[in-house]
Design goal:
Number of helices: 10
Structural class: alpha/beta
Low-confidence stretches: none
Oligomer: single chain
Shape: globular
Distance between the termini: 29 Å
Helix content: 40-55%
Strand content: 15-25%
Radius of gyration: 17 Å
Bound molecules: the ligand O=C(O)CCC(=O)CC(=O)O
Order of helices and strands: EEEHEHEHEHHHHEHEHH
């Protein structure tokens, strides 16, 4: 597993695909890691050098004391690009990864070719929800992460998908069970404190917004709110819950590739 060394620890990343292809950077959701994109990897890597990384606090990346901010996570993404000598990428992030994508679009648009914002919002959830979750995992440790795993299946996938495709659901929710409670709590705070509702208009790179019709966390209304404020943004809605890249699978992959020119 390659790492880049940041000022305060090591960030885990993976590069797949041809060395000379344009780079597509993928950013995970809260409580997952770079493997959440496994279903897309084969197709994406036919056209792109695919750069995946574990967001700080997740997977095999550094876990530093929280709370984190989305700006800090965005700076980690830029530090990874700088360390790999990559000037520009297309960026695709889901939920918390989509918040990082919004931050990059607003603050570092010169590093982006195209932006894909999946199952995300300019403002996600309420302080009450996030503070409750932070308190629960910090008090309950790894057992609380295992409890959260079971509670999350119903938000991340539709009941029909979860019952028919357990082999796709299990590896994803197991990532949550294995996530560091401290890292998870620090990232919850980053999501809690992010609010890009007034800044979305500063995104000028071509943008695709991906929604899930059955996503109760980051709803299609969240998606339409972003679309109305990002000039020229396209929007697609899949019959899926929160983790639409897993649930919509090939349809997701095909639509994102089409937006990226393939
Ligand atoms: O998925 C994310 O990145 C943030 C929203 C979230 O935590 C979804 C959920 O588990 O409720």
């Amino acid at each position: 597993m390659p790492f880049v060394t940041l000022a305060d620890g090591d960030l885990n990343y993976r590069l797949d695909g041809p060395d000379d292809a344009p780079v597509l950077m993928l950013s995970n959701s809260l409580g997952t890691d770079l493997r959440m994109w496994d279903a897309q990897l084969g197709a994406f890597a036919q056209h792109f050098r695919v750069l995946r990384f574990d967001t700080r606090g997740h997977g095999a990346s550094l876990v530093t004391p929280g709370p984190y901010t989305i700006e800090q996570l965005g700076q980690d993404a830029l530090a990874l690009l700088d360390a790999l000598d990559i000037a520009k990428v297309s960026f695709c992030g889901l939920s918390m990864g989509g918040l990082i994508g919004q931050w990059l679009g607003i603050n570092a648009g010169d590093r982006l070719e195209r932006l894909v914002l999946c199952n995300t919002g300019a403002k996600i959830g309420s302080d009450e929800v996030w503070n409750g979750r932070i308190d629960t995992v910090l008090a309950g440790g790894q057992q609380a992460m295992r409890d959260l795993r079971d509670a999350s299946i119903g938000r991340w996938f539709t009941p029909a998908f979860a019952s028919v495709e357990p082999q796709k659901v299990e590896p994803i929710v197991e990532m949550l069970a294995q996530t560091s409670p401290e890292g998870y709590a620090a990232n919850c705070a980053a999501v809690r404190d992010a609010d890009y509702r007034e800044q979305l208009g500063r995104i000028t790179v071509p943008t695709l917004i991906v929604c899930g019709s059955a996503d109760a966390v980051t709803t299609p209304e969240h998606g339409r709110f972003m679309q109305e404020r990002i000039a020229g943004a396209e929007l697609v809605e899949f019959p899926a819950a929160h983790l639409s890249n897993v649930e919509a699978g090939d349809a997701f992959t095909t639509r994102v590739l089409a937006f990226l020119g393939h």
